[in-house]
Amino acid sequence: MVPKNRNNVPTPVDFTLISKALVIISGKWRLTIILLIGEDTFRFRQFREQLPSMSEKMLAGELKALVALDVLTRTVYAEVPPRVEYSLTKKGRLALPILRQLQQVGHLFN
Amino acid sequence: MVPKNRNNVPTPVDFTLISKALVIISGKWRLTIILLIGEDTFRFRQFREQLPSMSEKMLAGELKALVALDVLTRTVYAEVPPRVEYSLTKKGRLALPILRQLQQVGHLFN
DNA sequence: CAGCATCCCGGAGGATACTG
DNA sequence: CAGTATCCTCCGGGATGCTG
Prior knowledge:
Mean pLDDT of chain A: 90
Number of helices of chain A: 5
Strand order of the largest sheet of chain A: 1-3-2
Low-confidence stretches of chain A: 1-10
Oligomer: homodimer
Helix content of chain A: 40-55%
Largest interface: A-B, 46 and 46 residues
CATH superfamily of chain A: Winged helix-like DNA-binding domain superfamily/Winged helix DNA-binding domain
Radius of gyration of chain A: 17 Å
CATH class of chain A: Mainly Alpha
Strand content of chain A: 5-15%
Order of helices and strands of chain A: HHEHHEEH
């Protein structure tokens, strides 16, 4: 229940926090990437296999963005052929339970 | 924690549910509208006052979409001048706690 | 008061080919 | 293997004006 003041003005919603949250999950793919990786570690190729309908460009761009947002970590192994692994950062893991609940919202509106 | 099978394949993420959830909160305004209205009842004009940076067209369009999605109810009063009131549907109210938590996600990535 | 109609632009998102 | 580079399409979102 949202508390109201005596003038019946709704409790202020923090638009800043909303927009920050929307940045994390915005677009067609970010939330999917986050939920897909979960507690695991993924290579570029594994994402491609799991999300075949997502283009390489989109995948590369979204991964880069999520790294910049400190949602994902990117680990490069000095091997030949190169190996790059992605996993959630601490912040990402903290957000995971909430983001998983969004699937319940999807279920609600079936 | 996500359970895995013995082949280390991650538990399937339900892409259908994700996309349905994303429809509900997609765009720059839907989540904001939902959180703003909360348990209250809003008139068109009140939205405009609370969200002055949102154009009328966007507001009208998003309200209509949210009504079609069964997130909002629209009640028209046969008065002159016309009065139209919006509030969350039962489903909308059920989703509200989860959607509110998204602000915590925004807070995490400050 | 509470919208809809019309026009427009920028950027999200896609297809394909190439590279360290 | 893990990405860039380039090009292109489409539509979200804004501005403005009109209407029941």
